[in-house]
Amino acid sequence: MSRPRFWDPHGERFGLPTYPWRMAPDGLLTRRQLRKRGLRPGGQPVAAQILWRSRRTNGVRAAHLYRACLAKPVRPMTPGRTAALAAANRARRTCPVCRRDAGYVLPTHLGTCLPCADGLTAAA
Ligand SMILES: [Zn+2]
Q1: Separation of 104 CA from ligand 1 center, angstroms?
Q2: How far apart are the C-alpha atoms of 107 and 111, rounded to whole Å?
Q3: Tens digits of per-residue pLDDT, 27-84?
Q4: Distance from the CA of 82 to the center of ligand 1, in angstroms?
Q5: Residue 33 to residue 39: CA distance in whole angstroms
Q6: Ligand 1 center from residue 84 Cα (angstroms)
Q7: How far is the C-alpha of 33 from the C-alpha of 25, rounded, in Å?
Q8: Ligand 1 mean position, distance from CA 100 (Å)
Q9: Closest by Cα among 34, 66, 39 to 50
């Protein structure tokens, strides 16, 4: 007879279309569910919510839902991004004193490769 407590598909009671746990229609997914499919909300507004009682927090918990049809793919690694990352890593390995690729990320407290750091210490 009575609808589940959190059944409000038109948002009349909760201000947002609201469904009980596991009763959201297909096509509305949580951020985590989108992520599993390689998607992200992509700036779309929250479309609906799931509400459920949590015994653990002794209250009502909410999860926002997004429309799968408006979701965007998680940014893929493109050749451009790969190159940019490689350049950034190279910069972090390149010693500003001897200009060589040290082969490791320079320790930030030294700011140079180890031989240069030794040399600077010896010279000081
Ligand atoms: Zn060096």
Answers
A1: 11
A2: 6
A3: 999 999 999 999 999 999 999 999 998 888 778 899 999 999 999 988 777 888 889 9
A4: 26
A5: 8
A6: 23
A7: 13
A8: 6
A9: 66
